[in-house]
Amino acid sequence: MRLSAQTPLPASVQAPGYDRDAQAAGIVHIGIGAFHRAHQAVYTDDAMGAGDRDWGITGVSLRSGDVAARLNPQDGLYTVSARSAGGTRLRLVGAVRRVLVAADDPRAVIDTIAAPATQIVSFTVTEKGYLRAADGSLDLDAAKGASSLYRLVGAALAARKAAGRSGLTLLSCDNLANNGVVLRRLMRQYLAAEHPGLVGWFDAHCRCPATMVDRIVPATTDADRATVETILGARDEGAVVTEAFSQWVIEDDFVDPRPRWEAGGAQWVTDVAPYETAKLRMLNGAHSALAYIGLGRGHEFVHQAIADPAIRPLIERLMRDEAAPTIDAAPGQDLAAYADALLDRFANPALAHRLIQIAMDGSQKIPQRWLETLAWHQRRGARCPVLLAAIDAWIAFLRDDLHPVDDPLADRLRAVAAGPDAVAALFGPRGVIPSPWVPLPK
Ligand code: CS2
Question: What are phi and psi of 357, to 5 degrees?
Fold first, then answer.
């Protein structure tokens, strides 16, 4: 039997504490993968559980019909399993109402974003999903493509303006530095090219707050779905598995109204940068180093790599001595305690987080995770031995034939990594990846 609104839930499973059918859909989320379902959708479920209203989520997949096929037959319902050493806590999340596939029906997506009830369009489209050219500007040709987020949102904003409706909050929930500013700049560039008459309206009526999102969400496996089925007594094709920890820091700059996400523990701040920088350089920076160094040493999972006595001290040094000094901490933000907590989270044996999942899209992740840290130290005449070792591990990963290289620049990266002085060819002045850090000649 498939999970649905009629499934009787075991007492141990937390259920949505509100009338789902009485809620309008105030949020359209583009990129409804496992991360969104384990993070923003849970905060939204908590907000409505605390009495806030009309924040139902319409999920959008840009291309693949996979998530729609998993969630639509289940009334949008799915479970989140939070796994810790203490056991697993299961909850049913009701915030997602349906999933649209832009490649199949772009009109439905545009109409939903343009609908009067919609207040927020949020995004988890991964680093490469923003379609940036090497210089950081928008790749306009790609952005004009049929199911590009810019094209969908641009058409919907035009419809909103024409109908005299309110502007929107566009909320990037991806691991980019200054994600709000980046989204605003790219969206403006698209509008200037394709809808020049909308730029002034966009500036006056739309907001693009920055956010720091954090929850480790490994890809769900068949074994995970089987475990959930045993507990639930019903088949949940949309199940997601994650850790107990969750954090969301959001710049308080929304078009009114905004959800009461604080009910789920979200923090509203005026400046996200210190949290975002710490997360990118410490958590994600350590993650990418664990991935390439760990795979090189034959590990499969994060918890195995961090338990390796040849790796753990390197990761500690990366976080404490290389990344942390580069961060301008906010009042009360304790970077040493943050590093301690991250080491515990990485060590969580209940979470089977594959290193190969983190290793993908290295060219899109490494700039904000490693290069800013390297550049900061370089300006002070210092070096970062662990990050340099991590770069060597990335190059070894690109060279070996043991793992697939899943990266939009895969072919170029592999060619360059196979040649002489790969570090300079990757990061030097005319390298594949524009870099604020200049590798020194060997
Ligand atoms: C990871 C992130 O896959 C990756 O690159 O570093 O997805 C990480 O698990 C999340 O950012 C944690 O919040």
Answer: -65, -40
Mean pLDDT by 10 residues, the chain (442 residues): 96 96 98 98 98 98 98 98 94 98 98 98 97 95 95 98 98 97 98 98 98 98 98 97 98 97 98 98 98 98 98 98 98 97 97 97 98 98 97 98 95 96 95 95 68
Pocket test for ligand 1, best of 39, 179, 214, 284 (most atoms within 8 A of CB): 284
Residue 312 one-letter amino acid: R
**Which two three-digit tokens encode residue 347?**
């060590």
What is the 360 CA–ligand 1 centroid distance (Å)?
11
CA of 280 to the centre of ligand 1 (A): 9
- Cβ–Cβ under 8 Å, residues 316 and 343: yes
Question: Nearest 5°: CA angle at 408, between 406 and 414?
Answer: 65
Q: Which residue is it, tokens 């995004």?
A: 123
Residue 16 neighbours by CB distance under 10 Å: 18
Three-class secondary structure of residue 381 per DSSP: coil
Q: Are 373 and 298 in contact (CB under 8 A)?
A: no
Where along the chain do the CATH 1.10.1040.10 domains lie? Answer: 273-427
Closest of 342, 338, 284 to residue 312, by C-alpha:
342
What's 368's DSSP letter? I
Probe target for ligand 1 pocket from 213, 287, 351, 353, with the most ligand atoms within 8 Å of CB: 287
Token pair for residue 205? 């009526």
Task: Say how far apart CA 227 and CA 81 lie, in whole Å.
Answer: 10
CB of 394 closer than 8 Å to CB of 407: no
184-234 tens-digit pLDDT:
999 999 999 999 999 999 999 999 999 999 999 999 999 999 999 999 999
- Residue 147: the pLDDT is 87
Q: Would you state the pLDDT for residue 442?
A: 62
- Residues 20-269, CATH architecture: 3-Layer(aba) Sandwich (3.40)
Which residue spans of the chain are classified as CATH 3.40.50.720?
A: 20-269
> What count of residues does the chain have?
442
Domain 273-427 grouped into CATH 3.30.70.2740: no
What pLDDT score does 441 carry?
74
